Amino acid sequence: MKRSFLIAIYSLGLLFLAVGAEDKQDWSKLESELRGLQSALSEPEILLINPILQQIITHKNTNLLVELAIQDRYSLVAVAGITGLARLDPNLAYQVALGRVWLSTNVSSAHILPFAAQLSQDLPVDRFVAVFSPLALLSPGDWGSAALAVQQVPRKLLIGWLRTGAGRSSLTTVSLVIDNLMPKLSSFEPADQQLVLDNLAALRSAPGYPSAIWLLYGKTSLDELIDGLRTVLGDNSIGISVKTLLLRKHYKQLAKVDNLPFSDRDKRYITELARKYGE
Question: Tell me: the pLDDT tens digits for 149-204?
Fold first, then answer.
C-alpha cells in the first residue's frame, strides 16, 4: 500500500512494463547472490558488478531499477536498485530514495543508509521543493525515519522549502524541519533566522510532536511549560526519546516546583537529573 502510494504521489509516470524473458529475474536468487559481497552496505557500488545488474544498467532500464529499489523483502536487491538508479538518473534516484526513507518503518536497518545517502545532493531549491512537498502531506513510517530523511538534506534546501512550501504541509513536517534547523540558527542570515522562528511559533498551539518541538526550542513561561509538558508526556504518539530530551532540557526549572502534574516516573527522573547535575 505504501509503495503504491509513493509512486502515485510522486507522479513518476512509471508504468512498470513487462520486461522481456531475458530480463525477468528471481529476486530471491539475486538477493542470495548479493549477500556474498561482504562490503555491500559500506560500498554499495560493489553490488553493480553482478552480471544481472550490469545487464540492467547496460540497457539503461530505469523502470526495472526503480522496481528493484522499492523491494521490501529483498533489502540488498533494493540497495542495488537505488545504487544503479543513482548512476543512470540521479534525479529519479533522489525521488525514490526520499520516499523510501520517509515511509520506512525500520530506520535502524543498515539497508536504509544507502537510500539516505542520496538525500545529501545539493539540488536546486525549486527541484527539492517539488520533490519534498508531496511527501510533506503524508504521515512518515515513523518519526525516526522522517528525522533521518530531513537530517540528510542540506539546510539551505530546508530553508528554501520553509520559504515556499511549508504553508502547504502538515505541522508535523514543519516541526521536523525546525528541529533540524534550530541548533544552527545563529549561522543563518537574519531573514532566514526570522523565518525559522516564525515557523517555530506556529507550532505553539499544535498537539503531538509539533508541541514537543515548540517546548524544546520556544520561549515559554513556567506555567505554559508545565502545562505543555503534562500534555506531551502523556501523549503516547510521542517517542520516549523526545520526552527524555525535554525533561533533560528543563529539569532545572521543574525541580524547583512542588506537586508537578506528571507521572511519578517522570518526577523521579527530574529529581535524579537535579541530583546528578545540580539545579
Answer: 999 999 999 999 999 866 778 899 999 999 999 999 999 999 999 999 999 999 99
List the helix and strand counts (H, then E) for the chain: 16, 0
113-142 pLDDT, tens digit each: 999 999 999 999 999 999 999 999 888 888
Long-range contacts of 196-202 (CB under 8 A, 24+ apart): 196/159, 196/162, 199/162, 199/166, 199/174, 202/171, 202/174
Burial 248-279 (b: 16+ CB within 10 A, else e): eebbeebbeeeeeebeeebbebbeebeeeeee
156 touches 127 (CB < 8 A): no
pTM: 0.84
Q: Is the dihedral of CA 143, 144, 147, 152 positive or negative?
A: negative
Residue 166: closest CA among 186, 145, 181? 181
Amino acid (one-letter) located at 142:
D
Instruction: Give the burial string for 171-203 (b: 16+ CB within 10 Å, else e).
Output: bbbbbbbbbbbeeeeeebeeebeebbbebbebb
Maximal C-alpha separation, the chain = 74
Give the C-alpha separation, 49 to 258, whole Å: 65
Task: Report d(CA 89, CA 82) in Å as an integer.
Answer: 10
The tens digit of pLDDT for each residue in 217-259 reads 999 999 999 999 999 999 998 989 999 999 999 999 999 999 9
User: How far is residue 4's CA from residue 222's CA, in Å, rounded to a whole number?
Assistant: 46
